[in-house]
Each structure stands twice: as structure tokens, then as C-alpha cells.
């Protein structure tokens, strides 16, 4: 039976990956857990515990080989291979995500954009033309799509999500203000921007109350 990794550890992996990428760009070849701790403001023991979930990777008296650790964490997160994605909802948020070039550097390649607004039909965003939603079924039959990104109003999000699942999509990045009810074999990552903003507001209020 495989060891179950906690959600907290999984949430920290992208941060390790980001800091290691910065180290590579700086030309750093190796780093100790203490040095990484000082950069990330995470305790050295926490770093060692997190990485030990996947085998450790460090050497006593040497630390971590930055390139090796970067590559291994990439493999763990599955970003050592290409993921094709479509965005459903080509409004402001959908277009902003489509224009975020860094996704491609991590292997996430936008291959399709869909919307219901006829005014957007044929609009090109970074070389990808917006298609109408009624074209999506045929498109998904012809293209291998790994991830669907939902950036549409919640009124239609549930229906569209179910349609995507029926068409073979098993991973959804959900920006709609709706908690999707989908089969257990569908991986859903919910991104509620307003929730994050309200948490920030709470932290501001809490800090002011402590003064």
C-alpha cells in the first residue's frame, strides 16, 4: 500500500519547485536544508520531513543537488510531461489565463478556447482562436485534452462540467463560484478567488484588532 501524502505537503511542493527554479537561474548547484529554510521561511526540519515522504534526496554533509531535486519534484507533480488544456469561458479571466505564458514553461499547453458569446468567435489569443461552445464536443473527440479550465458564470458551470466529464475529461481547474459534484475519478481543483480575498480581509482585520 502506497504511503498517503498529506494535503499540506502537496500544497508546499509547488513552492519548493519555484524556489529551486530560482536557485538554478542563479547558478546554485547545491543547497543545504538550512540554507533553503532561510530562503523559504520554512523550518529545515519541515523541509526534511516533506522531502522524506518521497525518498529524501539529500546527502549527509552535502545537502541537496538543486537540479536533481528540481527535476524529481517536477516528476512527483507530473509536470515533466506536457498537459494539453482547454479554457471554457473566454471572458476577462479566461483571456488573462490564456495570456499567462508561464504555464507553457511548466508543460501546460493551451490548445482550445470556448465561449457562448458570438462576438468572441474567431478572436485569437496567443495564437489560439475562440470557438463556440457547441463546437467543443467535436473538438474534444479529435484532440487529446488532459485538463479543462472553467472560467464561466456558476449558472452554467455545473452543466458544462458534466458535459466535459461525459466527453472524457478527468481533470478540471474550476474558477467558477460553484462546488462541482462530479464522479470520484474526476480530479477537481477549485480556485475561489473571492474566498482568498476574504481570507486576506480577515487577516487584515485580525491584525488591526491586535494593535
Number of helices: 9
Distance between the termini: 50 Å
CATH fold-level topology of the largest domain = Rossmann fold
Q: Tell me which CATH architecture of the largest domain applies here.
A: 3-Layer(aba) Sandwich
The H/E string reads: HEHHEHEHHEEEHEHEEH
What fraction strand?
A: 15-25%
What does this structure look like?
This protein has helices at 7-25, 33-40, 44-52, 66-76, 92-98, 102-105, 136-142, 154-166, 193-209; strands spanning 30-31, 64-65, 83-88, 108-115, 124-125, 128-132, 147-150, 171-174, 187-190. The chain has 211 residues and is of the alpha/beta class. The protein has two domains: 7-76, Arc Repressor Mutant, subunit A; 83-195, NAD(P)-binding Rossmann-like Domain (Rossmann fold), CATH 3.40.50.720. It has a seven-stranded mixed β-sheet, sandwiched between helices. Strands 1-2 form a two-stranded antiparallel ribbon. Helix 1 packs antiparallel against helix 4.
Amino acid at each position: 500500500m502506497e504511503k498517503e501524502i498529506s494535503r499540506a505537503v502537496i500544497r508546499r511542493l509547488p513552492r519548493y519547485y519555484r524556489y529551486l527554479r530560482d536557485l538554478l537561474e542563479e547558478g546554485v548547484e547545491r543547497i543545504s536544508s538550512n540554507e533553503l529554510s532561510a530562503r523559504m521561511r520554512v523550518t529545515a526540519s519541515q523541509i526534511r520531513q516533506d522531502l522524506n515522504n518521497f525518498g529524501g534526496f539529500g546527502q549527509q554533509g552535502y545537502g541537496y543537488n538543486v537540479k536533481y531535486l528540481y527535476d524529481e519534484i517536477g516528476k512527483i507533480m507530473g509536470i515533466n510531461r506536457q498537459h494539453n488544456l482547454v479554457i471554457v469561458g473566454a471572458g476577462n479571466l479566461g483571456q488573462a489565463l490564456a495570456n499567462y505564458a508561464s504555464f507553457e514553461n511548466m508543460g501546460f499547453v493551451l490548445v482550445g478556447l470556448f465561449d457562448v458569446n458570438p462576438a468572441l468567435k474567431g478572436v485569437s489569443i496567443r495564437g489560439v482562436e475562440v470557438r463556440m461552445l457547441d463546437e467543443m464536443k467535436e473538438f474534444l473527440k479529435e484532440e487529446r485534452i488532459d485538463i479543462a479550465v472553467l472560467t464561466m458564470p456558476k449558472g452554467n458551470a455545473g452543466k458544462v462540467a458534466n458535459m466535459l466529464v461525459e466527453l472524457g475529461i478527468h481533470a478540471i481547474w474550476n474558477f467558477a463560484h460553484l462546488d462541482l459534484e462530479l464522479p470520484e475519478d474526476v480530479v477537481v481543483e477549485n480556485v475561489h478567488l473571492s474566498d482568498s480575498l476574504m481570507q486576506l480581509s480577515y487577516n487584515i482585520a485580525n491584525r488591526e484588532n491586535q494593535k
